[in-house]
Amino acid sequence: MMRRATVSSFVWVGLMGWAPIGLAQTTTPAESAPATSAVQLVERANTLREQNQLAEALRLYRQAITLNGNFVPAHYGLGVALRQSGDTQGAIASHRRAIQLDPKYVPAHYGLGIALYKSGDANGAIAAYRRVIELSPADRALAPTYYNLGLAEEQRNQTAAAITAFRRAIELDPQYALAHNGLGTSMRRQRDLAGAVKAFQEAIRLAPKYTSAHFALGIALYEQRDFAGAIRAYQQVITLDPQFPNVHYNLGSPTP
Q1: What share of the chain is helix, strand, coil (3-state, %, to 5)?
Q2: Which of 22, 36, 53, 99 has the fewest CB neighbours in a 10 Å radius?
């Protein structure tokens, strides 16, 4: 009987999610050939997914599942590829299947959180992210989970909780520009404009071409009545992306 596949360790690869560093497959000798084929199919599918060749990646993940229906990384990879191709509900189902097979498979909980957030289920996303936190060591690799937890808290209008999550992400990874930008957005919603400006400026320091952070900085500076600073921020947005939504309108807004 085929026993559950395991992943020895994971590496965070940004927006692509978690990727296995090494696949460890436990099988009986008679089953080693199909299991190895499933591993190879998933590794190839992962490469194709990272290259945005989603249709072929989906085909290979499904082929791997046909060969070995208990191979957890195949269900997880299928879920990520489905989400990237726009099938959010399919992604949720695939991640839940991976979790059913291995309740401690961290990447599937993380992927489930992203898909649930995208579907508008903030409560479900938060539960999934908290499960990731429970199962993981408190190190830099966990920062994206806290960042996404902050986004989900904002989705349900829990701004104070979002700030706590963003700050935790920054504690784990001070160079995480997205978390600084998220913190700035939440602080602005709490009308802490000075704190918001500082957070946006830090995001820009870490990622000078972070267009959304420049735009958000412009809004916060305008609300602080620093109109010259707001104009400079909006002009930087236009330099980076002349088609950025609303920047020309905001730049042309009258100053009192």
Answers
A1: 70, 5, 25
A2: 22
